[in-house]
Design a protein that fits this description.
- The protein has a domain at 31-115.
- The chain is built from 5 helices and no strands.
- It has helices at 2-16, 34-49, 53-73, 77-94, 97-128.
């Protein structure tokens, strides 16, 4: 009896207090700082094409401006598209033709991977929620 009272008290206390850890399946939105985004973009570009020290120095301000401008655009799709086009043009200008080819291949592979993940998610969503059957 004492054990049941202790367990029920603990369950009530846990239910009343907010859990610090997210529940399974819950999505948490973590915002990375602009500086972290800039560093990650530069690192990814370096891994994709193998930047020289000179190219690295030239790419950093291009990436910094792009990330800052994206934050300022606040979801304006037209402006974001224009910023991406300008960013791609500026980055390609500092790359060698071989590096441009490597970057295009890496971007294409990333796009295909994203499309495959979306298709897989869509297929899982369709099979997970069957349509209701009609009974006449």
């Amino acid at each position: 009896m004492l054990l049941c009272a202790t367990l029920s008290t603990a369950l009530i206390a846990n239910a009343a207090s907010p859990d610090a850890s997210p529940t399974t399946g819950a999505t948490t939105s973590q915002k990375r700082s602009p500086e972290a985004v800039k560093a990650a973009r530069l690192t990814r570009l370096d891994h994709q094409v193998g930047l020289t020290a000179d190219q690295n120095a030239k790419a950093k301000p291009i990436i910094d401006k792009y990330v800052d401008d994206r934050l300022a655009a606040k979801g304006d799709r037209a402006k974001l598209g224009a910023l991406k086009t300008q960013f791609d043009r500026d980055i390609n200008a500092i790359l060698t033709p071989d590096q441009q080819t490597k970057l295009a291949a890496a971007q294409s592979a990333a796009l295909e991977k994203m499309k495959a993940a979306r298709a897989k998610k869509a297929a899982a969503g369709v099979s997970a929620s069957p349509s209701p059957s009609k009974n006449n």
